[in-house]
Amino acid sequence: MSRLFLLLTFTVLFDLTFSITFYLPVNLRKCLREEIHKDVLVTGEYEVSEQPNAKTNLKITDSSGHILYSKEDASKGKFAFTTEDYDMFEVCFESKSPLGTGRVTDQLVNLDMKHGVEAKNYEEMAKVEKLKPLEVELRRLEDLSESIVNDFAYMKKREEEMRDTNGKLSSIIFSMCCLIGLATWQVFYLRRFFKAKKLIE
Predict the structure, then answer these.
(1) 109 plus 28 within the same structural domain
(2) One of this protein's Pfam families, by short name (predicted)?
(3) Is 115 found in the same domain as 146?
């Protein structure tokens, strides 16, 4: 039981923190996508290496195209937003240079994103609410447990939706097979009927 809990905790913690480093070629756009649950705090920190002849723009959007964060000539900074619904979010870095490709070196991008429990500032919470270190850790574990329960509830809901979809799909396939069988029978019946009436050979 304890091994299962540790595995689940590790999985959730790994899912809550997202850190990546990559090179961004000039006049190109690179995007990262991630699915995040509803009412979840998302925080991020980014740093783009300096390049005198190029500037990098950062834009974060949801699947509907709504801009959650935008920064032109982004070199270093932080962002934060709270999700309104379960959605796929896209973080895009775009490098632009009037000199063109081949004449400007690639820029190094560091991106560190956190959401859920990992995004919360428990040190600030401890100061505001005057909590002891043990109380802060208990609050953090409580939030983590709630996050795990919510993840399981979401997975259960998705499993039920998939089961319903499979049931509907099976029903549709059965109906189509019946219709195809009926259409085939009608074709053979009408063929025999017209042959009997000598309307066709």
Answers:
(1) yes
(2) EMP24_GP25L
(3) no
At a CB cut-off of 8 Å and minimum separation 6, what does 123 contact?
136
Number of residues that make up the chain: 201
CB-based burial, 27-54: b 16+ in 10 Å, e otherwise? eeeeebeeebbeebbbbbebebeebeeb
Q: Tell me 104's DSSP state.
A: S
For the chain, helix (H) and strand (E) counts, in that order, are 3, 8
Q: Are residues 93 and 141 in the same domain?
A: no
Q: Are residues 13 and 96 in the same domain?
A: yes
At position 167, the amino acid (one-letter code) is: G
Shared domain check, 111 and 138: no
Contact residues for 120 (Cβ-Cβ < 8 A; gap 6+)? 41, 140, 143
More confident residue, 198 or 111: 111
In this prediction, residues 85-92 reach a mean pLDDT of 88
